[in-house]
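A reminder from the course coordinator: this example appears on the midterm review sheet, so study it carefully.

Given structure:
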């Protein structure tokens, strides 16, 4: 296998996941700041031009970070970060989906349409007028999550999962691009600091 890697929160999720699971695969770096992901030869690997991408042993392609992490979780030895039972897997997928739709999507779109506009304006349709509202939506949902975390240790319940890795990678990204964590959210802040102390964050 080979992982096409770059800067940014999406590849960070996969690298953190692999570090937590003890999985190692060769990396090939793609210069997304220079637009190499939107040009050949990378477009022949992933026509969508998105990062990261995992090429399997048989040459087939996997994209989308949740799909990549689930594939690695199911095919590699070690303790699952998705869940050992149908119920555990359902809860992990529930919260991973919720985090993705309600926090990650508005947070990243808000960045692309504002601070990231010089990079993205020629690569995708951008809506600068929507940036402030999208950022506010992400903050609203973090406030909701803060209430849900009362009395529980991790995003999906009492076990550390992919949902925690995804949320952390994007909140850490937000810290760098003008969307800092609201420290008035005590439960989210406590969880974030606990995540930041994990060795896998430097992967």
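Designed residues:
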């Amino acid at each position: 296998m080979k992982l096409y890697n770059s800067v940014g929160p999406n590849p960070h999720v996969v690298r953190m996941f692999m570090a937590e699971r003890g999985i190692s695969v060769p990396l090939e770096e793609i210069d997304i700041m220079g637009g190499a992901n939107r040009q050949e030869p990378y477009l022949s690997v992933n026509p969508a031009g998105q990062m990261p991408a995992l090429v399997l042993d048989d040459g087939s392609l996997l994209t989308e970070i949740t799909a990549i992490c689930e594939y690695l979780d199911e095919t590699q030895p070690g303790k699952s970060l998705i869940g050992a039972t149908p119920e555990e897997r359902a809860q992990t997928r529930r919260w991973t989906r919720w985090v993705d739709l309600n926090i990650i999507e508005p947070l990243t779109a808000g960045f692309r349409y504002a601070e990231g506009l010089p990079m993205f304006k020629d690569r995708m349709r951008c809506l600068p007028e929507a940036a402030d509202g999208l950022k506010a939506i992400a903050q609203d949902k973090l406030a909701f999550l803060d209430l849900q975390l009362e009395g529980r240790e991790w995003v999906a319940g009492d076990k550390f999962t992919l949902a925690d890795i995804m949320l952390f990678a994007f909140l850490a990204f937000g810290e760098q691009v003008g969307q800092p964590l609201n420290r008035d959210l005590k439960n989210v802040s406590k969880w974030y600091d606990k995540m930041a102390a994990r060795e896998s964050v430097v992967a």
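The mean pLDDT is 97. The longest strand covers residues 2-5.
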